[in-house]
Amino acid sequence: MDLKPGHSETAEEIVARSGSNLAFALALLPPERRHDMRVFYAFCRVIDDVADDRGESLLNRRKALDRWRALIAGAAAHQGIEEEFCSLCRKYDLDPELLNEIIDGVALDLEPVRFETAKDLERYCFKVAGAVGLISIEIFGCRNDKTKQYAEHLGYALQWTNIMRDVAEDADEGRIYLPLEDLEQFHITPDEILKKQVPQDRFSDLMNHQCGVARNYYRRAAGNLVEEDRPNLRSPELMRRIYFGILCKMEKDNYRVFEKRYRLSKFRMMSEFIMAKYLNH
């Protein structure tokens, strides 16, 4: 099976077509680390695209993810991103357990998901975001152990914000990431989410609760940002500024996520980029 997309593509090609906020944030890194982070980001992008590729059978998507597990375990790489990824793993001696956590996380998205509790959702967020952060700080060159807590909690914050923003898009795919216990607390049924027919007052109460959870993760991340590693963390700090801005925008607008997709303006994005580049020394 051709591991589409990304089997023969290079990391640079994959990043170029992604258009993500993370790809934008990587421009803050020195050239060598920027290249290495693009390779890691491309790996994350490829496995995520594999899991979401509805044009492939479930069996083929599982086989494609197993191919990446085999590469982590030492299987011979092919050209393109596979070769670049394996070289990156050797260069930084990346933790195979964390890399497999990331694959396990995207594998949960192969079929519609539900999370009973906030703790269940947090475990998912660790796989798809916290583990990504822990690998990233190795590539950034961070040294202080406290930065691991920064990376993990920022991962939770960013992913929680994503989940809040993408409620409508996820519903289109039959997915609900918001904890079912929270839906029950605010008297909302999963069917109301999937049909996008949630009474606004109850939905606002639910989302205000999620906003409080996300804000707590942002605070915990900030509390573990140490001066020693601050110069190496300009890219994740830009991500923090962007996604916290999106969170605040949703909150101010009463979470109209069924009507619009929240994003920052190009002017705001460039302003945040400049702030992260020059003020986070």
CATH T-level topology of the largest domain: Farnesyl Diphosphate Synthase
CATH architecture of the largest domain: Orthogonal Bundle
The largest β sheet comes out as: none
**How many distinct folded domains?**
2
Order of helices and strands: HHHHHHHHHHHHHH
Q: Ranges with pLDDT <50 over ≥5 residues?
A: 1-6
- Portion in strands: under 5%
Q: Assembly type of the shown chains?
A: single chain
CATH class of the largest domain: Mainly Alpha
Summary of the model, kept short:
The chain has helices at 11-18, 21-25, 31-52, 58-72, 81-92, 96-107, 118-140, 146-165, 167-172, 180-185, 190-195, 200-223, 234-252, 266-279.
Features:
14 helices, disordered N terminus, 281 residues, single chain
Walk me through what this model shows.
With 281 residues, the chain is an all-alpha fold. The chain folds into 2 domains: 1-111, no CATH class; 112-281, Farnesyl Diphosphate Synthase (Orthogonal Bundle). The chain contains 14 helices and no strands. It has helices at residues 11-18, 21-25, 31-52, 58-72, 81-92, 96-107, 118-140, 146-165, 167-172, 180-185, 190-195, 200-223, 234-252, 266-279. The protein starts with 10 loop residues before the first helix and ends with a helix.
